[in-house]
Design goal:
Structural class: mainly alpha
Largest sheet: 4 strands, mixed
Number of strands: 4
Number of helices: 10
């Protein structure tokens, strides 16, 4: 796959970030309108009543989404660190890693990001952050110990390309918004299962919960599909960027072969965070064509094949 160029990709990802900031609230507002449309009795209420009820709730929805986004957006570093079991890797612990990261950053003129380590023998890595203050490259103990210098350099270059392309910012924005629908779906599912609406003895209350759950689940599926598509494409571009940066595509291909043999990080249970890794540590590979729509990463064999063509 031909690398499209740094500035072009940065512009595209910044544009997509803005689009996501518009798209996700739009989906949320559209689903809230559908909630009233399906809930209100059409024999008693008309479309004007639907619109009136919807307009009354818009400010509260907007405030709720804004609060969720504010908290998640600015606390994402700690949330990701906790979800992955990562910690800061001190220079004195591993000068080799720092030398590789710093040399690559010097060659590209970028500020050196934080370096974290995950104490796990599996082979994996990921980048995260939204700005120079929070940009971080996290490496597992296994990937540090089991890759040679050229292979590890390729992996680090891949993660630095995610940062340079603003991939990480784009993914953080999508994770934050998809998380809203995931939270609502889970909360409403528990209400349905444990009879939240029936416990009050109100049929309408039960119907409202069921409708809300169905719409929240639908919103989660729609936004997840969009997120998955973004995630798959960015891996190809980061592979190409790493090959261009190191001039050693075969080294990254070799690293990916080793990663594919053992990418499972035991500490990672959250699916949204798992998509940040160079290879999803919790994703089961399925041979069904339709299932690929829900994959966060392209087949690693295909990525290796493309790298070998450089």
């Amino acid at each position: 796959m031909k690398y499209v160029g740094l500035q072009t990709q940065i512009w595209r990802n910044n544009s997509k970030s803005v689009l996501l900031l518009i798209l996700f609230p739009f989906v949320f507002f559209a689903l809230s309108w559908l909630f009233y449309f399906f809930l209100l009795d059409k024999e008693v209420y008309d479309i004007q009543d639907v619109n009136y009820n919807w307009l009354q709730t818009i400010p509260w929805i907007a405030i709720g989404v804004a609060i969720w986004f504010f908290i998640a957006f600015f606390a994402h570093s700690k949330m990701i660190q906790k979800a992955t079991g990562s910690r800061t890797l001190e220079r004195r612990e591993n000068k080799r890693v720092y030398n590789l990261v710093e040399n690559l950053c010097i060659s590209t003129g970028m500020k050196t990001p934080r370096i974290n380590i995950i104490e796990d023998d599996s082979l994996n890595a990921f980048a995260s952050g939204i700005d120079n203050r929070t940009y971080t490259v996290s490496l597992s103990r296994g990937i540090i110990d089991k890759l040679n210098d050229e292979e590890l350099e390729g992996v680090i270059a891949h993660e630095l390309t995610h940062i340079r392309n603003r991939d990480v910012r784009l993914l953080i924005v999508s994770i934050v918004f998809v998380g809203i629908f995931a939270f609502l779906s889970e909360m409403l599912m528990r209400t349905v299962v444990y009879g939240g609406g029936r416990s009050r003895g109100k049929k309408d209350g039960g119907n409202a919960v069921i409708i809300a759950f169905a719409l929240a689940l639908f919103g989660y599926l729609i936004t997840s599909l969009f997120r998955f598509a973004l995630s798959r494409k960015r891996e190809y571009l980061a592979d190409a960027g790493a090959a261009e940066l190191t001039k050693k595509p075969q080294a990254l291909a070799s690293a990916l072969r080793k990663v594919s043999s053992d990418a499972k990080i035991e500490a990672v249970e959250r699916k949204d965070v798992a998509q940040l890794f160079i290879e999803n540590p919790g994703e089961k590979k399925k041979k069904v064509a339709f299932a690929s729509m829900f994959a966060t990463h392209p087949p690693i064999a295909r990525r290796i094949e493309i790298l070998e063509q450089f």
